[in-house]
Amino acid sequence: MTDGPLLVTTVVLAPGVAAEDVPEPLLRDLLDRGYRSKRKKPAALDLLVTTDGEIARLNRRHLGRDEATDVLAFMDGEMEDGRVRLGDIAISADTARRVATERGIRFTDELAFYALHGLLHLLGMDDGNDKDRAEMQRLQAKIMKEHGIDRADELRDRL
């Protein structure tokens, strides 16, 4: 196994998202850790941190749902610089901030939860039935706990 990241993540901040609010190193490291839990070949993905308005536009355009959401994941599978390109994840900073405030948790933990959830979808995990949801919840909480994210079990139980 390599000492560097297996998963190269490009983080893109949409207009309206403040750079100082987004913990890019934490997100990259968490996604790499999540990727290593499932795969061992070099890969890449793009992570868009955006607003409710933009994620609603993406949701409408790609899924036909006219609403904002917390996270969207779009699989790719192409090759890029010798790495499998997993796809794209879009997360809403607006939703993360609102939900974090409502639940009394850290905004950065909520962002991390969305990013990791999107990654697990790109890796083929699903939360469409109770058995698959429980497996996804278990792995997501384990990775977040290993990364030192407080209240990982509480976040997990929301899937």
One letter per element, helices H and strands E, the order comes to EHEHEEEHHHH
Unreliable runs? none
Class from helix and strand fractions: alpha/beta
Average pLDDT level: 88
**What global shape is seen?**
globular
Discrete helix count:
6
Kindly report how far apart the N and C termini lie.
Answer: 31 Å
Extended strand count: 5
- Percent helix range: 40-55%
Major sheet: size, sense and barrel closure?
5 strands, mixed
Give Rg in angstroms: 15 Å
Share of residues in strands = 15-25%
Supply the key terms.
single chain, 159 residues, alpha/beta, five-stranded mixed sheet, globular
How would you describe what is shown here?
With 159 residues, the chain is α/β, with parallel strands linked by helices. Helices cover 47% and strands 20% of the residues. The chain contains six helices and five strands, in the order βαβαβββαααα. Strands 1, 2, 3, 4 and 5 form a five-stranded mixed beta sheet that branches. The radius of gyration is 15 Å and the shape is globular. It starts with 6 loop residues before the first strand and ends with a helix.
Topology:
Blueprint: E1 7-13, H1 24-36, E2 43-50, H2 52-63, E3 71-75, E4 79-80, E5 83-92, H3 93-103, H4 107-122, H5 130-146, H6 152-156
Helix pairs in contact: 1-4, 3-4
A few lines on this structure:
The chain is an alpha/beta fold and 159 residues long. It is built from six helices and five strands; from the N terminus they run βαβαβββαααα.
